[in-house]
Amino acid sequence: MKSPFVHLHLHTEYSLLDGFGRVNDYVQSAKKMGMDAIALTDHGVLFGAIEFYKACQSAGIKPIIGCEVYIAPRGLAQKSGRIDSQASHLILLAESNTGYRNLSKIVSKGYIDGFYYKPRVDHQVLKQYHEGIICLSACISGEIPKAILGGQEDKALALVREYQSIFGEDHFYLEVQDHGLIEEAKVRDALYRFSKQYNVPLAATNDCHYVNQSDYKAHDVLLCIGTGATVDEENRMRYPNDQFYFKSPDEMAALFPDHPEALENTVKIAERCDVTFDMENAHLPQFELPEGFESAGAYLRHLCETGLAKRYDPVTPEIQERMAYELATIHEMGFDNYFLVVWDFIHYAKTHGIPVGPGRGSAAGSLVAYALDITTLDPLKYNLIFERFLNPERVTMPDIDCDFCYERRQEVIDYVIRKYGKDRVAQIITFGTMAARGAVRDVGRVLGMPYSDVDKVAKEIPMRPGQNVTIEEALKENPDLRKMADEDVNVRELLQMSEQIEGLARHASTHAAGVVIADAPLTEYVPLYRNGDAITTQYTMNLLEDLGLIKMDFLGLRTLTVIHDALNNIKQTRGLDIDINQIDMEDPKVYQLIASGDDLGIFQLESRGMMSFMRELNPQHFEDIVAGISLYRPGPMDQIPRYIANKKDPAHITYLTPELKPILDVTYGCMVYQEQVMQIFRDLAGFSMGRSDLVRRAMSKKKSDVMDAEGEVFIHGEKDADGNVTVPGAVAKGIPENVARQIYEEMKDFAKYAFNKSHAAAYAVVAYQTAWLKCYYPAEFMAALMSSVMDNEKKIAQYIDNCKKHRIIIKAPDVNESQYKFSVGFDDQKKAYIRIGFGAIKGLGQHPADEIVKAREKIGAFKTMTDFFERVDLRLVTKKVVLNLILAGGFDFLGYERSQMVMGFPNMINRVADEKRTRLSGQVSLLDMGELDDYKGDRFPSTEPFTKEEKLVHEKEVLGLYVSGHPLEHYTGVLASETNLNASMMDSYEDLVESGIKDGGKVCVGGMVDGVKIQLTKNNDQMAFLSLEDLFGHIEIVVFPRTFNQFRSRLHDGEAVLVRGRINYNEEMNVSIIADQIEKLDQVRRGQQPKNDLNFTIHEEKTRYNKKSAPRGKLVLAFHDYSEKGKLNRIKPLLKASPGDTPVLIQFEREQKKFGASRSLWVTADSDLIKQLKGILGEDKVSIR
């Protein structure tokens, strides 16, 4: 017979990097041991409470919600010195729902008011929120045990009395533990005496930090990860033995044979604890109704009717019917208030000039949202479906995500806080977990394994964007990894240990956009957490929804700011006030721009792969952009060739049954959207839209049982218990059974990847708007674009390069023209140029910039530097600001050398500052007396001008970019021909994959060494980390010892080099290059040979063809740039299949390079081959010359 016992002291993975046990593992272990209850008591937090509660309920075990809180030694207000960092422990358990609410408040108080190294509270806080809480005196780190161990039993006894006074004598227990420690024995002896003498009940616990005794080593590794130590270090934090596991009742009974009451009391405590979470009712904020409206529903209807009349003329019966249906659904689901809350803050943003996006996610399918101006995309025009957003047959919280200008997003959140109360609004927590590669690297470091060995193992774990490939999956997929594990015991141990910690929570952070708004103070429902300045919930987004709390996403979208700034630029430069929501969405010139691949800066379309796809797609209508955004993702990409072929030649389009045509014709016979799947269910088989959405969800989640059952319903229909037909089925609607089955199988396969059309359409609007601006107002648009990335050197370099292609001149900052952001001006020939903004100058923030602009606008342009100093506030425009302005070119209009101004300005600024002080003191200055007529003129000393190289270095230092030239401008030819990678291609893992560069793939980069950091390996060998600057930004280069020793003479600042090596992705998808060979660019340029980097036998065109050897025509295949090299693999078989005497010329337009294919690939250039090649490259990319 098992001894009665309940664990009341237990740490999960949410005791971050200290607790090793996963919530469900503890619960399943408790169930296996026959326990009826179990407590959760993580350090200072309730992160895991709801996950724990749900797991216990599923297992039929009572959950006890608790926390091991930290007690501040001198009160939570004291936060200085070592003493205040040494908080004591205390176990608090929620006895009731009131106790949970109070525990939530205590834990919140610890983070919001008491945080100092740890989230601390004090006795005063405990007195304020003691009701409904049972307290245990904690482990040997508790206040009472500390006093005992310090020989202060009187103090310990006084603390016992104080805790009894705070919580009540029947709510305080002396906690006894036995992990085999000498200190514990001393504490137990004292507590046993206290219990007997003063009738204070005992409670036996084990300080559980992991589930099984065998987890001890993995837990120790986890501690080392948290503290940055290795397992072999002597003086590090460690647990003294392997006894801190989830022990059985029998094991606990064996530890306390003389005090069975200590175990029995744990059961009594468990019986008293009864916390339940309300997961049925929503706690939506109550919108304050204006006079004359009795309900939220009535006011919502009024707003919708008003908005509908503005949106449509006339409002047809069909529109009225759709509106009535949506309003009825919203009301029946209890979300009237929700829509009013969202309408209110969107309305606030728009009436205060804060840019708001056209919509996001499935909400764009709602006519109510469109009428309320929450979204700006007509759901009827684009056949968007309401049930994809709000399904009456599946009651879930609505989810309207909102995009705002990223600079002013916080204003909207602040408005919501003011309206509903600071205590009812918070951001949302999210947890970073240990991914497979990261776990391997962490464990390898902790075990002291050589970095290169660990790196080899980590690299064998595949990386897929948006997916976490586990170690288990990697071992199944990768035979090389299995071989490494089989042959090397160290690798096997590394992978086994890494697999144990993989997926554990590593750190807490703030969700990028999520905000929760409640109908009462949030601590009534959830504990709060402080992450820097942000106050967040301690529960994640999905768990908040379980509790009926509404989550709203307030996203800061940079592109909205770009559009807003571009429109302001247009107004400033041309006097035009453009409403971007009223532009022609079917403008051929705009689609021509998109199809050209000149999509840099265009929302959603500027990745290299997407630009290439747009050239292939050749979009001509808005629906093409919507489809493009939906198709260009893993999974749907397989549909791209068919989609493009059907678009180019509609004769290719076939339908399994004519009923599919009205659903799929907009996407040329291809299934692209989730909404199309839903329409097929409804139109072909008679499903309701709500049920259609449920089946679509089941398909996307691969729920085979649901799919099999619903497949039969789709084909043959369904009747209710009374024999009434509820779903007629496809066969009954005239579709042959075999065709219906084939359609269902295709849907089942496709639905896993189908995209939400509402979301794609809303984002396609933003994409088109940016393309329209770039098409008609390129300078104004590019200025706004660069203003949005002033802190991103790579992006700025990319955009400047794009400006050059558009023949837009970039000018240095100028104190007489620049604004804070990049701005647009016109030269004497009315040609637009972009002026770099003050905000791009390092050390020159918003306030100095505003001061310069204000002074300039007040009187006019500055005539001299002295005039400038006279008119600006020199407390804001400091000497450092002036120096950086000079070096950036801000005073070039004066006609002096920058070196002269650098030498002379300090005396001038001092002289003007003295004059200003003289005036303030009431004295008359020499200037006022008119005795120095030329005083306001500038006098600069004679000095040598800066060299061109010095000017460029200064520009780079203060602007982060070069304006008057580039140190690598002499090497552009060799860089274009030799390299296959540059800094602009390394912004994201996805961009590199799209360029065909995989982890470990060979690459070649070139640039100037701009920083060398040399360090020693564990074997005392020298290695280096280089910062290499190319034409577009910086690239991180890792030089291991062998390569370092071979090429060290070339590793110094300012050296122009070519680096050949291998691409290296880390677990955060950050990219670096491991160098194998380093050459001087000068030497490469002098001895350059024709190069083949195209996976294709080719020769430099100039050496293969000349007027004598090539009298016949050539087949010219034009590629936009090197990023399209992958298409050669598709073209090569076509060329081989049509052998002949026509030479083939490969041309890369951006790089201005031409290559001739080898003789074996010359062709017979007939019409069939030309047609096939045009299908791959585009109509204007294949020609005979």
What can you see in these coordinates?
With 1185 residues, this protein is of the alpha/beta class. Helices cover 43% and strands 15% of the residues. It has 47 helices and 29 strands. Strands 1, 2, 3, 4, 5, 6 and 7 form a seven-stranded mixed sheet that branches. Strand 6, helix 7 and strand 7 form a beta-alpha-beta unit. The radius of gyration is 35 Å and the shape is globular. About 3% of the residues have low confidence. GO terms for molecular function: 3'-5' exonuclease activity; DNA-directed DNA polymerase activity; nucleic acid binding.
Number of helices: 47
Q: Given this structure, which CATH class of the largest domain is correct?
A: Alpha Beta
Distance between the termini: 94 Å
Number of strands: 29
Q: What is the overall shape?
A: globular
Helix content: 40-55%
The residue-averaged pLDDT reads 89
How much β-strand is present in the residues?
Answer: 5-15%
CATH topology type of the largest domain: TIM Barrel
CATH superfamily of the largest domain: Metal-dependent hydrolases
CATH architecture of the largest domain: Alpha-Beta Barrel
Map the helices and strands.
Elements: H1 23-32, E1 37-43, H2 49-59, E2 62-71, E3 88-94, H3 97-112, E4 120-121, H4 123-128, E5 133-136, H5 143-149, H6 153-167, E6 172-176, H7 182-198, E7 202-204, H8 216-227, H9 249-255, H10 260-272, H11 296-311, H12 317-332, H13 336-351, H14 367-371, E8 401-405, H15 409-420, E9 425-433, H16 436-446, H17 451-459, H18 471-477, H19 479-487, H20 489-501, E10 505-517, E11 528-531, E12 534-537, H21 541-546, E13 550-557, H22 558-574, H23 588-595, H24 608-617, H25 622-631, H26 640-648, H27 661-664, H28 674-685, H29 689-700, H30 704-716, E14 718-719, E15 725-727, H31 737-750, H32 757-776, H33 778-787, H34 793-805, E16 809-811, E17 823-826, E18 832-835, H35 846-859, H36 865-871, H37 879-888, H38 898-920, H39 926-929, H40 948-959, H41 972-978, H42 989-994, E19 1002-1016, E20 1022-1030, E21 1033-1039, H43 1041-1047, E22 1056-1065, E23 1071-1080, H44 1081-1086, E24 1098-1100, H45 1101-1104, E25 1115-1119, H46 1128-1136, E26 1139-1142, E27 1144-1148, E28 1153-1157, H47 1167-1177, E29 1182-1184
Parallel strand pairs: 1-2, 2-4, 5-6, 6-7, 8-13, 16-18, 21-23, 25-27
Antiparallel strand pairs: 2-3, 3-5, 9-10, 10-13, 11-12, 14-15, 17-18, 19-20, 19-22, 20-21, 22-23, 24-28, 25-29, 27-28
